[in-house]
Amino acid sequence: MDVVADMVNGLKNAARSGKNTVSVDFSKYKNDIAMCLKREGYIATVEKKTRHGHPYLELTIDGASEKTISEVKRISKPSRRMYGGVGDFRSYISGRGILVLSTPKGILSHREARKEMVGGELLFTMW
């Protein structure tokens, strides 16, 4: 089970179908990814809620934002991990897309990782 792929594909499918909110099971890892997407402008709000004693994240997609989710590509998979150094990061889709990484400093976009001068596991690209 690839929980990261399930989460980002749920966001992509919701954006394509015109839905504003997506609910995913809560984990600290998913919360950190959602906060990274919020910093980059792809998600408007991230709220932790509880339903029947089980925590979940409610993610709101801002339809009025210029950054819409049209495609997601998973890079590092459970069967094959991919890593990159700080020199490997470039702009994606002419600066409109992002690469999300898991680094020693947390979940960062490629822009933030370049500023922090860290590399890590390449999770996915989104544009």
Can you offer a commentary on this structure?
- With 127 residues, the protein is an alpha+beta fold.
- It contains 3 helices and 8 strands.
- The protein has helices at 3-17, 28-40, 110-116, and strands at 21-25, 45-51, 54-60, 72-74, 83-84, 98-103, 106-109, 120-126.
- The strands form 2 sheets. Strands 4, 5, 6, 7 and 8 form a 5-stranded antiparallel β-sheet that branches. Strands 1-3-2 form a 3-stranded antiparallel β-sheet.
- It starts with a helix and ends with a strand.
- The mean pLDDT is 92.
List keywords for this structure.
Dna Ligase, domain 1; 127 residues; alpha+beta; 32% strand; 5-stranded antiparallel β-sheet
Number of domains: 1
**Strand coverage percent:** 25-35%
How far apart the termini lie comes to: 24 Å
In one word, what is the shape?
globular
CATH class wording: Alpha Beta
CATH topology: the name is: Dna Ligase, domain 1
Overall number of strands: 8
Largest sheet: 5 strands, antiparallel
- The total of helices stands at 3
Return Rg in Å: 14 Å
Low-confidence runs of at least 5 consecutive residues: none
Strand and helix layout:
Blueprint: H1 3-17, E1 21-25, H2 28-40, E2 45-51, E3 54-60, E4 72-74, E5 83-84, E6 98-103, E7 106-109, H3 110-116, E8 120-126
Structure summary:
The protein is 28% helix and 32% strand.
